[in-house]
Every structure is written in C-alpha cells, then in structure tokens.
Design goal:
5-stranded parallel sheet; binds flavin-adenine dinucleotide
Length: about 350
C-alpha cells in the first residue's frame, strides 16, 4: 500500500473510514513530482562506501544523498504471555486489519497503556459494542499530555462512555491456554479478556542505520541540519534523534522531513526542535495539549475551570511554554503559535485565575 495516514488507523478500525480513504497520495502525485515509488519491499542491506542500498527483492539503488525515514515500531514489553493468540499492537494497516478481523468475534478487550493511542483504539472498539478496559501504569491517564486535574476530568468523561480503567498498576501476565483468556494485574486482580491490545510506546527502526555504521543512540543521531555522522546520509521523523529528543509525532516528522529534504537539495535549514503538540482524536471530546504541561506545578499558570472546561496555560517569565485544553480547543492553533514565537503574555488573552508555582521551586 502506498503512503497512508497512519494517524487515522483508529477511524478505520472504528468503521468511519474505508481502507482507500487512508491513502495519502494518488499515483499521479508521485508521477507529477517525478518520484519513483517502490512499495512491498524492504531495504535490507547498504554499502556506505559504494553508496548503494539493496532491497530484499534484490534491487540495488545508488545514491548521492540518502534519507533514512524508517519510522518506528510498537514496543512490546516483556510481559508473560504476550505471545498468545489475541495479543496485538497497532502501527500499520496490516495490524489494523488483524485487529478488525479478530475483534469481530470477541467481546472483552483489554488495552495496555492509557496514552493517546490506547484511548483512541479503545474508543474505536467501544463504538463497535465491545467491553473495553484500559490498564495504565501511571496513576493518571495521558501522563504526558495531562496533569492530575485534567486527567481526572477526562477519566470521568470516558467512564460516562462506558470505558473501564485500572490505573497505577501494570500487567503481570496474559493468561490462557493458547489464546488470551484473562489478564492478571500486578496488584492481584484478574480481568477476563479474549483480546489484548498493547499501546506501550514505540521504538525507532534502526536496522538500516546500523548496517550503514551510523551513530545511533535511542534513535539515529542527527545534527540541526538532519545530517547523520556521514554527511551524505540524513535521517528524519520517528527514527531520528535530535539532541535528546525522539518526537514520535506527525507534525515533527513533517517539519523534519521538509527541512531534511531542503538540506539534501543544497538548502540551509537549521532545525531548533519542535514543540510537542497532541490532540485526542475521539469524537465529542475536545482535548489538546502542547509544550510543558507542568504536571508537577513547577511554573506559574493561569487556569479556566467550568463544569465542561478545564484549560491551563503554563507560563515561564513572560512567555507561554505550554497548555492543556479540555472541553474547548478553539484557540489551540493560536496558542501553539504563541508558544513557538515566545509571544509576550501581555499580548495574549489568558484567563485571570493565577496559580502560583510551588514555593522554593522555579
Ligand atoms: C494509530 C496511530 C495513530 C497516530 N496518531 C497520531 C496523531 O494523532 N498525531 C501525531 O502527531 N502522531 C500520531 N501518530 C504517530 C505518527 O504516525 C508518527 O509520528 C509518524 O507516522 C512518523 O512518520 P515517519 O515517516 O517518521 O515514520 P512512519 O510513518 O513509521 O513511516 C516509516 C516507513 O518506513 C518504512 N520502513 C521502515 N524500515 C524500512 C526498510 N528497511 N525498508 C523500507 N521501508 C522501511 C515503514 O514500513 C514505514 O512505512 C500515530 C501513530 C499511529 C500508529
């Protein structure tokens, strides 16, 4: 399948999209841009001295410049029983097809991981009449996107939609004869289940980079021009590590790909990092967050709280450095711009309610 919108796979699982709706670019787009697209094979070997890569179907391609945008794969933690029939992860269209087909005849589904992806997959399956329980190691949902107050509110909204949650615990064992029959939690509880979906984060695909002898750490190490330690080889997207950062999000991958491509063609784009920004893609729940969400209340913030809305704007000196928006995300794009451009807060409309930082901290 040609390049498709991975980020919409849950809409496909939920039945809101057909497979062909996921395809990002039609064949004419590649022709128009003079891009030769080769699908259905992998690069399995590379010779950095001869500047050649080889595919598993024995094709070879010479390059002057090479971009590694190999993305990442789902992390499968070493839980006992994780290899049983009925345990899935979601990264590709093929994973989504398997999940759809298996879920058809299954009722009780446990989602391991209460991050964005886990909640979106859970919501898609809930919409198909399944019983969904989310197990999250952290004591709150979306630990990277929400503080305690925001997470408690989101959990209430999701429980009202029939989600079940087990927070502050992890999975000790996935039990069953050959296929999944139950999920045993560290704190002793046993959840009956006939399907498990693990959403425990991603890891960069490093294999081609390692074959090329490139410097890798958590990801492929790049400089601010997206060059690896070999100046003719670049890396971008989920596979690339800039400073200490692995972004793992679509907008950062787009920004990096654009910059790397420009630089490979002789441009001089200097990257300074991306502000992490995320939206929960669940119909009827408006939730977005960006930058520093300050779950530990180290900074000053302004908050807005009503029955349906919780918004927090985190401030450092006179600048916005992050936000949480639950129930009203209308000005999310403008807020991200203010964070990126380090706009003085005097020029932004913010709620009046001020929350001081903790004494003795920043
Ligand atoms: C279900 C889902 C929902 C998501 N939702 C969001 C969201 O709402 N917002 C957001 O910001 N991010 C989201 N993400 C994350 C986002 O999809 C990634 O950050 C983004 O796709 C990264 O782009 P990339 O091009 O670096 O890698 P990828 O999209 O992973 O693409 C890498 C490609 O390289 C191919 N490849 C790897 N190795 C080889 C090889 N050796 N030879 C040939 N080809 C190879 C892979 O098959 C893959 O097609 C979501 C991810 C998933 C799975």
């Amino acid at each position: 399948m040609p390049f498709y919108y991975r980020i919409r796979l849950n809409e496909y699982i939920g039945g809101a999209l057909k497979e062909h709706d996921l395809v990002a670019r039609k064949a004419d787009w590649y022709a128009e841009k003079r891009i030769k697209l080769i699908t259905g094979t992998r690069v399995i070997d590379a010779d950095p001295e001869k500047q050649i890569v080889s595919t598993e179907n024995e094709q070879q391609f010479a390059y002057d410049r090479l971009l590694l945008a190999t993305g990442s794969h789902s992390y499968l933690p070493p839980i006992q029983g994780v290899d049983k029939q009925g345990v899935f992860t979601l990264r590709t269209i093929s994973d989504a097809r398997k999940i759809i087909s298996f879920a058809e005849t299954r009722e009780r589904i446990v989602l391991v991981g209460g991050g964005l992806l886990g909640l979106e997959t859970g919501n898609a399956l809930l919409g198909k009449g399944k019983k969904v329980t989310v197990v999250e190691f952290f004591p709150r949902l979306l630990p990277r996107q929400l503080d305690t107050k925001g997470a408690a509110r989101l959990m209430q909204i999701m429980e009202d939609r029939d989600f079940s949650f087990r927070l502050g615990t992890s999975v000790r064992e996935i039990a069953g004869n050959r296929a999944v029959e139950s999920v045993h939690l560290q704190r002793g509880e046993i959840l009956p289940a006939n399907m498990v979906i693990v959403s425990a984060g991603v890891r960069p695909n490093l294999e081609p980079a390692q074959r090329l002898g490139l410097a890798t750490d958590k990801g492929i190490v790049v400089d601010s021009a997206f060059r690896t330690n070999r100046p003719e080889i670049f890396a971008a997207g989920d596979a690339a590590q800039f400073g200490d950062h692995l972004y793992g999000i679509w907008p950062a991958a787009m920004e990096q790909g654009r910059a790397a491509g420009t630089n490979m063609a002789g441009g001089g784009v200097i990257y300074e990092g991306s502000i992490p920004a995320n939206k929960l893609k669940v119909a009827g729940i408006d939730l977005a967050s960006a930058g520093e969400i300050d779950a530990e209340n180290r900074f000053k913030s302004r908050t807005e709280e009503t029955d349906t809305v919780y918004r927090k704007f985190v401030i450092d000196a006179n600048h916005l450095i992050g936000c949480i928006m639950l129930g009203d995300t209308a000005d999310f794009a403008r807020t991200i711009r203010a964070i990126n451009e380090q706009t003085d807060i005097a020029q932004i409309k913010l709620p009046n309610r001020e929350q001081a930082s903790r004494p003795g901290r920043k």
